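Ticket opened by: R.M.
Priority: normal
Category: complex prediction / small molecule

The reporter submitted a protein together with S-adenosylmethionine and asked that the result be attached to this ticket for the collaborator who will pick it up next week. Submitted input follows.
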Amino acid sequence: MSLNYQCPLCQQTLNLTNNSLKCSNNHSFDFAKENYVNLLPVQQKNSKQPGDNLDMVQARRAFLSTGHYQFLQSAIAKIVQKHTPRTIIDLGCGEGFYTQEIAKLSNANVYGVDISKSAIKYAAKRYPQCHFSVASISQAPFQKGMADALVSIFAPLFENELARLAKSDGVLIIASPGPWHLKELKQKIYRDVKAHTPIAAPNRFEPIEQDLLERQVSLGFDELKNLITMTPFAWKFRPEHWQALKEQGEQHVTLSFYISQFKRST
Ligand SMILES: C[S@@+](CC[C@H](N)C(=O)[O-])C[C@H]1O[C@@H](n2cnc3c(N)ncnc32)[C@H](O)[C@@H]1O
Ligand SMILES: [Zn+2]
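Result attached by the on-call engineer:
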């Protein structure tokens, strides 16, 4: 197995020996029994449990397992495959829902990185065909210019890292909320719901193509609860909002996504 990580402490190449990754300065990182590696040094940990917590992870798994986001999963994997990449990094991959579909459609070496240990544990247990690590994507544990394709799905964007990680002819594929994503739910909280705009080209990338995917779905209370809990939008929901949602029962909700493709510019 060829694994291409760099040490998060000294940026030297990490080599695989037995069940650990080691650099020439003797920094060592063991693989967990679920087969992921933790490359997040304490200095980069800004809280005890960085990233999405277990509640968010479980809610997202429960919601994604309903199949309502399958059209997005499949569209993203097809778009990535169109570029025939050999090395792909899914930055902020969560529980690997998109990562594993991307790996299924390609022969590439597929890496998934997330700062949330709960999410990576889940991903690594289920999808052994991908390489998962707990790490920060603000200082990702990979060599410069290593990725033919970078994927970012509803995850934070760190422009300098994107430019550093992409090959000179590499692509960046970003999924972000479309104009009226979840508008029916947002209307319950905000008087004035604003449309999301597409992601602008990050520094040192230029746009190649953009798709807008939209669907209306009908969701029951449990599905709505999971969908809300898996987003930061949940923090806005007060007990009275949850109660109103419960009383209303099944609801039509707009799902809307931009998939933006960029290529690395010089
Ligand atoms: C909205 S979730 C999306 C997860 C996954 N891409 C999906 O769509 O199912 C955002 C993810 O970014 C991760 N994240 C946030 N900040 C991060 C950072 N600095 N480094 C790595 N991951 C980060 C969170 O832990 C979370 O899993
Ligand atoms: Zn090192």
